[in-house]
Amino acid sequence: MLVSMEVIGEILRWIIASTLFIAGLLIIHIWIRDKTRRISLLRVFVQFASLVAIYFILTIFPWILVILIVILVSTIFLGRFFCGWICPFGLYMDLVTIFRKSIKVRYLSLPNRFNKALNKLRYAIFAAILAIPFFLAPLHSQSWQLALFFAGSFKHLTILLGPLEPLIIPDTGVLVIEGLNFSYPYVRDVMFYSGEFFAVINGLLFLILTLLGTFLVRRLWCRFCPLGLSFVIINRVRGFRWIPLLHLDKSEEKCTKCGICKRVCPTQVTEVYENRGGNVSTSICIHCFRCVEMCPYKGCLTAKTGGKTVLSSRNWLEPSKTN
Ligand code: SF4
Ligand code: SF4
Ligand code: SF4
Predict the structure, then answer these.
(1) pLDDT at residue 193 in the model
(2) Burial per residue of 249-270, b for 16 or more beta-carbon CB atoms within 10 angstroms, e otherwise
(3) 107 alpha carbon to ligand 2 midpoint, in Å?
(4) Which residues constitute the domain of residue 113?
(5) Global confidence as pTM
(6) Mean pLDDT, rounded, for 234-250
(7) CA of 141 to the centre of ligand 1 (A)
(8) pLDDT tier at 86 (50, 70, 90 boundaries)?
(9) Does 128 fall in a domain?
(10) Which residue out of 80, 263, 286 has the highest number of ligand 3 atoms within 8 Å of its CB and is therefore the one to mutate?
């Protein structure tokens, strides 16, 4: 007997609701038992809450360009905080990492020189990704009209917002099951620019490659993501330098060169470990604060803004000194 789409939709809703419920219980459980994961758990919670918020923002306020401007402006104060705590694609990558850890598969680290080269190459990749729409999209004349500019029809810029795509979206997704529209970051763009014949193949290829890549290398897409790089470019503007940016600070005297910060960093930042002291933030740091959470010496690593400490490392190796 064929199962109707209505039943599949209902089952999917139940699976999503129960997964969220179980994840919530798991988060509370780990929060109570493991103090070294509290920042990470808080981050996952904020990421999920942001995902729900983004879904509703896209439902009631689909003005792509305005959303993009708000996100870009926020980085003047927060740096890449968006990447570590809010970005939905970042959350999906972190969930893949959690899954990999749960089945005890070790991640691959990119060789440091390659990671640094990729860093430099980001600008070329950024230019190429932004250029794609101009070469491949059929130019819609209305795209260039100012009135529609702010109404979200500036299709060429939506590629920058690819990472914001929730898995369930309010408008037409790539897969529709009983009223639920499923999607995945960039897939709609990939399909749009692939033409009718290659749309499904390229969409699927992108999905498989990014999932597999992230399974092997933590936060792989973040190493060359165009939106992430936009944040970096904004923070390079001299005029914004007077603004107290959220950053990582290291105390040279307290650092024992244990190397934990280097090992736990999802984007393989080495400067926190290598630099002597002071502001150790770099452009590939996504402000996840995993290094602050895991640095085992009190006050050695801190997240600061405007001279104020927002987060600080603790002596978690010695329970009696934990605070
Ligand atoms: S770099 Fe891109 S994909 Fe990664 S978290 Fe930032 S915006 Fe999201
Ligand atoms: S984890 Fe802390 S103590 Fe260890 S190398 Fe990094 S900054 Fe230094
Ligand atoms: S340097 Fe620290 S805060 Fe930055 S990405 Fe790495 S672990 Fe996260």
Answers:
(1) 76
(2) bbbeeebeeeebbbeebbbbbb
(3) 21
(4) 5-234
(5) 0.82
(6) 79
(7) 31
(8) very high
(9) yes
(10) 286
